[in-house]
Every structure is written in structure tokens, then in C-alpha cells.
Amino acid sequence: MKITVTSRNPNSKAFPLTLELAGSPTTVTIDTLSDAIHKKLPKYYPDRQRVTTEDKRVLERGKNKSLADYGIKDEEVTLYFKDLGPQIGWRTVFLIEYFGPLIFHPLFYHLSALFYRSTFNHSTMQTVTYYLAILHFAKRELETLYIHRFSHGTMPFTNVFKNSAHYWILSGANLAFWVYGPWFAEGTTMSERSEVWIWGCVAVWAWAQLSNLATHVTLRNLRPPGTRSRAIPYGYGFDLVSCPNYFFEIVAWGAICVLTLSWSAVLFTVVATGQMYLWAIKKHKQYYKEFKNYPRSRKALFPFIA
């Protein structure tokens, strides 16, 4: 069949591109088309492409769908191309994001005399918070390497700076600076916490982190290696909400807020909760749209609420 690929950018010099592909709309897959574009124009590797029909339906790769699945029936067709720009793998993005706090927390904690221009002993609250923060982001790095399987391979490279700012600034430099400062040092009124207070927060944090890990393992097991398949998750946490991994993440950071009583921890938690709520609503709607038998009693993020 004959496919004419034209760019939605009127200034593009690489398009229109004419492809002659063996087969018919029922046998030519989206991956075949994407690979053919890449072969003709090596600059536009598959993850950098967005190809749509005239009515702007996106032809999705990795789902083993043919052109006919998107309503294309003619042996000659015109499709539309958009350059998504240089891409970066999601796994790499996550590793970069979580690495920031692993730099800033040790710097402010161990080099406090340099940053605060004074010498003091860290309080129990500061020390406990430090180790909880390090364990949290080390866990996230290990999950990225060994547990997560991503439904989307890449994202635009420029987005890595925006995404990383959330972690490097809010949960990295900002949180570390205000929590490990002399105002929370040993012997100060602001650092006073009972053992029940401290270890109660640690217990809630640990439960939330282990619960978060369990939900990540459940999601991993739904997606065979090398695929982007989706299925309905069931089990611990998922009987109540569509995104229990986000819910347990919020609980863990809520415990740190109570432990530190720091506005910097509250700021990060509020911003993170808002973002995770938006993600949860989007995923919740996708589940309803994709699976007709999706449990109607589930909420998106907060059990019994929303």
C-alpha cells in the first residue's frame, strides 16, 4: 500500500514522505509504519514520532494494531506526523529525579557547620528524619532499577528539568535546609519530641513504605517483561483505590510532616499530593474506559472519598 506522511509543521523540509509498504491496511501494523519512517529518516526514531490520522487519532505503537484498527481502509492514505523532539527513557528520568535528594540530604546533614555557619548537635528528630529520607529515595532508585515496568518508553528530554526540580528543590535542598538547621538542633524547644511521637511516626512511615512497595510489585506482575500490556490490578490496597501506591506515598510523607513539624515538609507533601491526585484521576478514568468490568466501588486515590 502507498502511505503519504506529511508534517503538521508547514516549515518541515523532510516531509511529505511517500512509503510503499507490502500488505494491506489489515496487515500493516503501526510498528511497521514507524520503523519505515525511521529507516527513511533516521533522525526520527520511533519514540520521537507521533503519527495521526486525518481526524487526529494517534496511531499507538507497541499494541500490535494494524492501520485497519484505526479505521484506515484505503490502499492509499495520507497520515500526519509530529516530531516529539529528543527523548529520554523514563527509567533514566526517575533515576535522575530521585538522585537529587540523595545528594542534598547528606550535604546539609553532614556539613551543617558549612551551611549554617554554626556548630551544633543534631537532635533525635533530625537524625531519624535524615535516615528516613535516605531510605525513601534509595528505595525509589532500587524500585526504578529492579521493579518498575513502564507503559511509556520515553518522554521529551526537556521535561527532565521540570520533573527533577520537584524532587531536587522541594524534597531535596529546601526540605534538607530547613529540617537540619540549628533551630531544630539538640536542646532546642522546637526539637522536643517524645519517644512515642518519634517512633510512632517511624512505624506509620515504615508501614506506608512497605505497603507502597507491595503495590509496585503487584503492578509489575501485571505486565510481562518487554510488553506494555495493561490489566486490572487486584489485592492489597487495590480493593479500595485505583492508585494505592500514591496513597501510601502520601501517608509516608504525612508521617514525616508530623515528625518534623516543618513547613518545608508540608509544602512538599501538599504539592506532591496535588500532583498525585491529578495522576490518579487520569489513571482511574483510563481504567474505566479500558475495562468494562472495572470495579465501580473503587475511588481514585483516597479510600471512600475520591
UniProtKB/TrEMBL annotation:
The keyword Aminoacyl-tRNA synthetase does not apply. It is a multi-pass membrane protein. The chain crosses the membrane at residues 165-185, 197-219, 253-279. It holds the Pfam family Steroid_dh. GO terms for biological process: very long-chain fatty acid biosynthetic process. Residues 154-305 form the 3-oxo-5-alpha-steroid 4-dehydrogenase C-terminal domain. GO terms for cellular component: membrane. It is found in: Membrane. The keyword Membrane applies. CDD domains: Ubl_TECR_like. GO terms for molecular function: oxidoreductase activity, acting on the CH-CH group of donors. Gene3D superfamilies: 1.20.120.1630, Phosphatidylinositol 3-kinase Catalytic Subunit, Chain A, domain 1 (3.10.20.90). Keywords: Lipid biosynthesis, Lipid metabolism, Membrane, Oxidoreductase, Transmembrane, Transmembrane helix. Belongs to the steroid 5-alpha reductase family. PANTHER family: 3-OXO-5-ALPHA-STEROID 4-DEHYDROGENASE, VERY-LONG-CHAIN ENOYL-COA REDUCTASE. This is 3-oxo-5-alpha-steroid 4-dehydrogenase C-terminal domain-containing protein. It comes from Jimgerdemannia flammicorona.
